[in-house]
C-alpha cells in the first residue's frame, strides 16, 4: 500500500506502529498493474483520485482468488456522481470535466460491498452537494474510515448504519487517528487456542467487534472473559463442533470461516458450514483433508466431521484466511506440517509466527 501511495506522490514516514502521511503533492493518478495485482485494496484509490484530481487510471484488482469480486458497484456509483468511466486494456479510466467536481447523488448498492462503500464514501466527501449511500456496508472498518474522514473535516451522518449521508466539502485537512484493532487477527488467535488448548490474553482488542465469533467460541467450549479492551480465552478440552452461516456484518464474518473449519476438524461431533459471500472460498478443504480431516464440500456448503487426530503433511496456502486455517491445523496435527506459499499469510498477519511461538507453538519459517 505504501509503494502504491508513494508512487502517486504521497510522502510517508513510518515509525514503529505509527505512520505519517502527507498527500499535499499527489500528482500521479495511476495505480499500475504491477502493484494492484498483489493487493485488491488498491481499488480504494479510485474514488479519492477522481474526487481530488478529476481523473484516475487504476488497474483492475487482483488479490486472493476466492471468487468473483466485481467492481461494478464502484463504477456505477462514480457514474451517478458524474464521472465518465471506461474499461480499457485491463484498466479503469475515470474522469470528470476539467474545472468541475463530482456531484452528490443517491446511490443504492445492488449488493453489500465493503470496498465499494468505502470508495464512494471517500469520493462523496469532496463531491458537490449531498450524497446518500443506501444498502451500505456496516463493517467496523467502514465506520472507522468514516470517523477518520470526519476528523479530517468531512460531514457524514449515519455512521455504523446501512445509510450514509455525506455533505460534500471543498477540502479535507490533516488529522490524527488510531486505527481500530484487527478483529480477524484476534479471532484467528482465539480459534488457535480453541483448537490447541491453553490460556491466552489478547490486549488492545474491542470485544464488541467479535460478538458473533465469541458466541460461537463459547458454543465450542471455550471459556471467554473480557473487558473494555481485552479478551481472555481458556480451553482445556476437545472442542465441540459448531455450525454457522457466513453473512455481512454483524453476522458471522466470511473471513473467520476457514479458521473455524480448522477448529471443527478436530471437534467432537459434526458441523455444517454455509458460505454465502464468496463462491470459491473452500479451497482450503482439500488441504485440510490432506492433514487427515473429514470434510465434504458441496457447492457453498461444507460438512465437517471431527476426528481425534490430524497428521502433519506438506500443504499449500491458497489465500489469506486459508493459510491461517492451515496454521491452526498444523498446531494440533501430529508431526510436522509444512505450509507453502505463506506470502498470503504475511499480507494479513503481522509476525504471526513470532506471536504463536511466544504462546508456546514450535514454528519455523524457511525460504523454499
UniProtKB/TrEMBL annotation:
* InterPro entries to which the protein is assigned, alphabetical: Enolpyruvate_Tfrase_dom, Enolpyruvate_Tfrase_sf, MurA_subfamily, RNA3'P_cycl/enolpyr_Trfase_a/b, UDP_GlcNAc_COvinyl_MurA
Give yes or no: UniProt keyword Ribonucleoprotein. Answer: no
Cite the Enolpyruvate transferase domain residue spans from the record: 1-356
Reaction(s) catalysed by this chain, per the record, are:
phosphoenolpyruvate + UDP-N-acetyl-alpha-D-glucosamine = UDP-N-acetyl-3-O-(1-carboxyvinyl)-alpha-D-glucosamine + phosphate
The EC number on file is: 2.5.1.7
Keyword Zinc-finger listed? The answer is no
Q: Which UniProt keywords apply?
A: Cell cycle, Cell division, Cell shape, Cell wall biogenesis/degradation, Cytoplasm, Peptidoglycan synthesis, Transferase
The pathway entry for this protein reads as: Cell wall biogenesis; peptidoglycan biosynthesis
Q: Where in the cell is it found?
A: Cytoplasm
Instruction: Cite the PANTHER family for this sequence.
Output: UDP-N-ACETYLGLUCOSAMINE 1-CARBOXYVINYLTRANSFERASE
What the entry lists under HAMAP family is as follows: MurA
Would you identify the family this protein belongs to, as annotated? Belongs to the EPSP synthase family. MurA subfamily.
- Name the chain's protein: UDP-N-acetylglucosamine 1-carboxyvinyltransferase
**Species of origin:** Linnemannia gamsii
